[in-house]
Structure formats: C-alpha cells, structure tokens
Amino acid sequence: MPLSFSKKEGPIEAREGRLFAYLEKIGARTKSHGSKELLQHLQETYTLLKSWGCDEALCHAGLFHSVYGTAVYTEQTIDYTGRENVRTLIGQEAEQLAYLFSVIDRPSGLVKALQTKTFFDRLHKKTIPASEKELMAIVTIEIANILAQRHDKKLLDSIASAAITSRLPFPSRIMYVLREI
After folding, report:
1. What structural domains and CATH numbers belong to the chain?
2. Which residues of the chain fall below pLDDT 70?
3. 89/101 Cα distance (integer angstroms)
4. How big is the CA angle at 156 (ends 55 and 116), to the nearest 5 degrees?
C-alpha cells in the first residue's frame, strides 16, 4: 500500500512527498516489480531503511535504488542522462549510491565485494575500489531490497554472513538486522 501524508506535513514529510511524487511522475507506479508496482517496492525499501535509523542520504538512495535499472531489474525508469536531475532532488551522496547500486554486479557479487573491498562495474566491465562507507551502504540497501521483496532467504543469508565477517563497522542497528536474518 503506497504511503500517504496528511496536509499537516512537516519539512521531512513534505520532502518525502515530493520524492514520491517525482517517482510517480517518471512512471514508477506503472512499472511492475515482481508481484507489485515499482513505486510500492521503492517505498517499502525506503521505509525499512528509515525504520533502521539510516541517515537521509542512505534512505533516499534506497528510495531510488533501481530507477536506473540494475543487474536483476533491467527496466530503467530514468536513464543515466537523468542523473543530474536525480542528484538535484536527492543529493549527491544518495544519487551516487543509487547509481552504484545500478551498475555493480549484485546481488551475488556483493559477497565478493565484501571480501575484496571492490565492486565490479558490470556496465563498464571493470573493477572499482569501494570505500567502507559505500560497501556498508550498498549492503544495507540490498538487505532492505531483498526483505521488501520477501524472498531469497539463501542469498540474504550469504550476504548477511559476509557482511558480518567483513568486520566493517556497520551501525549497531544494522548489525542487529544482519544477525537476525
């Protein structure tokens, strides 16, 4: 069920409303994503990240995580030429994470990324360095993404296990989520 806000919105809720309206405008409500509409999936991913206490940039990256398409969800809601518009809307850090999520080899490549501290850019066919912050953010978005789809327990287990053994300094709330998977 899509999220909605009353007319007594504060600044945060008003911004969320603008982001949801933008996603609807670019067609996220009309695209399917598994058994639901893409917009619903993006909102559910965002809601999980927000409930885990993730910062605004990470939550916004989660809200836009598949608008460019991904290795698994190949349909683009907006192509890469629209990155500047998305960056203006959600901020540079959030847009960079959403872009990374779209171009890297995932979800299965995340286990290797956690071991090597690199991502494989499937579009440009090259390995790129990954900072700890990027690794933690992409893994966190992926966990929320998979949980929002309510499937692939085996993949979820392997990513969570690799994240825990990576010894990256995940925030305690995220470590709790990873351990409970």
Report:
1. 11-180 (1.10.3210)
2. 1-14, 32-35
3. 18
4. 75
- pLDDT tens sequence across 59-84: 999 999 999 988 887 777 788 888 99
- Sorted by sequence, the CB contacts under 8 Å of residue 104 that are 6+ apart come out as 71, 113, 119, 120, 121, 122, 138
In the block, which residue shows the tokens 């440009």?
124
Q: Which residue is listed with tokens 């405008």?
A: 25
Q: What is the identity of the amino acid at 122?
A: R
CA–CA gap between residue 45 and residue 54 (Å, rounded): 12
Which two structure tokens, joined as six digits, stand for 22?
């933008």
CB atoms within 10 A of CB 14: 11
Rounded Cα gap, residues 135 and 131, in angstroms: 6
Report the alpha-carbon distance of residue 41 to residue 28 in Å, rounded. 9
CA 148 from centre of chain: 11
